[in-house]
Design goal:
heterodimer, A: mainly alpha, MetI-like fold, flat, B: alpha/beta, D-Maltodextrin-Binding Protein, domain 2, three-stranded antiparallel β-sheet, 20 helices, 14 strands
Chain lengths: 302, 431
């Protein structure tokens, strides 16, 4: 008796499940073909030597052992950490600042919002080209301004000491607009009554910002932080476009994804490249987990 | 309830859309023959050569009515052409006939994606040994299998800006110049005083056009015959590189640093350089630039160590081994090496046709310029040193030489470390 009812329920449930899966099938199939399968294949490739034409021969842990000995990879990891360590906090603070400004009742807010959002809808290749010209030692806008101000010109993106920072500026400039929009949306979801009450109690604007806006906005800030950190670890296109191989600052601007790209597509060491991508994945995973644990201390979901 | 239905409808719609898309995706592939006609795809990477490739395809279609040739252009920049070709070859959808260069030939041969043309060559009247420079034919021959028909070649020559020479009152370069004449002209030009930001010459860290020609003319070497060792430690090799570094030290050239940002070509085209070395493939760009094209000319690469230095490199037409129309594709590839095709290509003046009897068309294409400077000594030129790990090798070489070009380290120090690193790469990839 008991068995039959269970069976009946199971049958109905199966049907329901089946329908559900049928409906999500198109998307699930896409995710499987374009995300899950390549991920598994990539993991498998990291234990193989894979040539340009995807012929794999088992290589054990050798790719990972080679990775440990690869000085260039470790310096690239250092560059990447520096990139994330600077662009994420600076970018976050800037976008928070801009969002707060645009949340006030000034004239032409939609105009400013459009201006700040513009870099997010511009092709990164075009952005890189324009910045490359701005930084150019001989013909660039920046050095022209330096000269006019009485300073001597500088090879901004050819000097290994400054190149990475110059690239960071472009990175921050490119993401502030997008983050600003998200933060702005969050800010507008905060009830005015908190601010009114605070005003009545005599709290200043700055005090209101830190005591009301920031805590109320913490889930949004957390989201922006997570996505910026992930984006920062995956930085590639602007650096690839701005710093060519002949550039003297090439080594000092290499990021993990750059090394991955070169091994996979320039040298045809796809197995090694797969191992690098697993390293990138693990680092991002680790940092994200740490952030997820850390958020309990400061993110306010009430 | 109503909302549920809406979601269901939406989901169904999405499902249908996805299904339709996947179907469309399937029918898009293939390239199967339609009504008896054979469709051949032809992969190239140079926009400037597209018109002449189209002209050649049309000429072929005229005599082969049942063949339709479709040109697929993928830019070379950033390795895009190769990335796409490798992915397509893996998936079996590479173009039937495509351009290949010596840097990729061996890897592609090993990967088994290039059709062995021996049988087709035997049957045809195209005699590669007789009609093409040996260096180019050999560059595409592995284990006695010919895997490509030589297409064109490039060598290097010295271009100069007549305006700058006139203003400085220095005599124009000539075909019989030596390296010392070049250095002396640099000195005279500098002494005469050039415009601010202008230089007599430029020495970027460029192997093919600058230091390999002098390395080989000086009796130096880069790779040994069995490709297990590099020759950076040989003093003769180093002399062939040092000569360019010396010109930077004298202030005759911008720093390698500055040249990495604003290329020598760009400076020459901007009228900022009196002289520059350039591969023959730069000719269309220089001659189509209205800012300089009326005031430039060229001479042969200056003699070094009593020899005519040069590096010869060239492309080839290869056939995809997974092509559905192998025979038709091979026939087209071989035809591209014929007198007729090579003439069309040569007369365009865009590249030097590889075929011996068609080389002259390049020089004839522009009577105002001394384009024969590129072909006069092509027989004495050295082929580009290549091996399977060549992309990695060139990268470590260029990266290491930066310290020598900037003067931070001596060339000898740089080269001894470079040899260790480069030999390690050769050993690693030899397996």
């Amino acid at each position: 008796m008991q068995g039959t009812t269970r069976k009946k329920i199971a049958k109905r449930q199966w049907k329901e499940w089946g329908e559900g899966y049928l409906f999500i099938a198109p998307l699930l199939l896409g995710i499987f073909v374009f995300y899950i399968f390549p991920f598994i294949q990539n993991f498998w490739f990291s234990f193989n030597e894979v040539n340009k034409f995807n012929v794999a021969t088992f290589y054990g842990l050798n790719n990972y052992i080679e990775m440990c000995k690869d000085k260039e990879l470790w310096s690239a990891l250092g560059n990447t950490l520096l990139y994330v360590g600077i662009t994420v906090p600076v970018g976050l603070m800037l976008s928070l600042f801009v969002a707060a400004l645009l949340n006030t009742k000034i004239r032409g807010t939609s105009f400013y919002r459009t201006i700040y959002f513009l870099p997010s809808v511009t092709m990164s290749a075009a952005v890189a080209m324009v910045w490359k010209w701005i930084y150019n030692e001989q013909y660039g806008l920046l050095n022209a301004a330096m000269k006019a101000g009485g300073f001597s010109p500088h090879g901004w993106i050819t000097d290994p000491r400054t190149a990475l920072f110059m690239v960071m500026i472009v990175g921050i400039w490119g993401t502030v607009g997008y983050n600003m929009i998200i933060l702005l949306a969050g800010m507008q979801g905060i009830s005015r009554s908190y601010y009114e009450a605070a005003s009545v109690d005599g709290a200043s604007g700055i005090c209101q910002f830190f005591k009301i806006t920031v805590p109320m906005l913490s889930p949004t800030i957390f989201f922006v932080m997570i996505t910026s950190v992930i984006g920062g670890f995956q930085v590639f296109d602007t650096i690839y476009m701005m710093i060519g191989k002949a550039n003297t600052a090439y080594r000092s601007t290499q990021t993990l994804v750059m090394i991955f790209y070169r091994n996979a597509f320039d040298y045809g060491h796809k197995g090694y490249a797969a191992a690098i991508s697993i390293l990138i994945f693990s680092i991002i995973m680790l940092v994200t987990v740490i952030q997820m644990i850390g958020q309990k201390k400061w993110v306010n979901y009430d | 309830m109503k909302r549920m239905r809406g979601t269901k409808v939406l989901a169904m719609g999405m499902a249908l859309a996805m299904a339709a898309m996947s179907l469309a995706g399937c029918s898009g592939g293939g390239g199967a023959s339609k009504g008896g006609a054979t469709n051949l795809s032809f992969g190239i990477w140079d926009e400037k050569q597209r018109p002449v490739m189209e002209a050649m395809a049309q000429a072929y279609e005229k005599t082969h009515e049942n063949v339709k040739i479709e040109i697929q252009l993928t830019p070379y920049k950033g390795g895009e052409y190769w990335t796409k070709l490798e992915a397509a070859a893996t998936g079996g959808t590479a173009p039937d006939v495509f351009w290949i260069n010596v840097l990729h030939a061996e890897d592609y041969y090993d990967g088994g994606i290039l059709l062995d043309l021996n049988d087709y060559l035997k049957k045809s009247d195209l005699d590669l040994e007789k009609n093409f420079p040996e260096a180019l034919v050999k560059a595409y021959n592995f284990e006695d299998k010919q895997i490509a028909v030589p297409k064109d070649f490039d060598t290097n020559a010295l271009w100069y800006n007549k305006d700058i020479f006139d203003k400085a009152g220095v005599a124009y370069p000539t075909d019989d110049w030596t390296f010392d004449d070049l250095a002396k002209a640099c000195k005279d030009l500098k002494a005469a005083g050039l415009d601010s930001g202008a230089y007599p010459f430029a020495c970027p860290i460029d192997f093919q056009t600058w230091y390999y020609p002098t390395v080989y003319a000086n009796g130096g070497w880069v790779l040994n015959a069995d490709k297990t060792e590099t020759g950076y430690n040989d003093p003769k090799t180093q002399e062939g590189i040092q000569c360019w570094i010396d010109l930077i030290k004298e202030g005759y050239s911008p720093s390698a640093n500055a040249l990495s940002e604003t290329s020598a070509d760009a400076m020459f085209e901007g009228g900022q350089l009196a002289m520059v070395l350039a591969g023959s493939y730069m000719t269309p760009e220089y001659t189509s630039n209205d800012a300089i094209n009326t005031k430039i000319n060229l001479v042969e690469f200056p003699e070094f160590n009593g020899k005519e230095p040069n590096i010869i490199n060239g492309l080839g037409y290869a056939v995809f081994s997974g092509s559905k129309n192998k025979d038709a594709a091979a026939d087209f590839a071989l035809w591209l090496g014929s007198e007729e095709a090579m003439k069309i290509q040569g007369e365009s003046g865009v590249v030097i046709s590889a075929r011996n009897d068609a080389q002259k068309y390049f020089a004839d294409s522009n009577k105002d310029l001394n384009l024969a400077a590129y072909t006069n000594h092509s027989g004495e030129a050295n082929p580009l040193p290549v091996c399977k790990s060549v992309a990695e090798l060139y990268d470590v070489e260029a990266e290491a030489l930066k310290a020598a070009y900037s003067g931070d380290k001596t060339l000898a120090d740089v080269c001894s470390q470079l040899k260790t690193d480069a030999d390690a790469i050769l050993a690693k990839n030899k397996k």
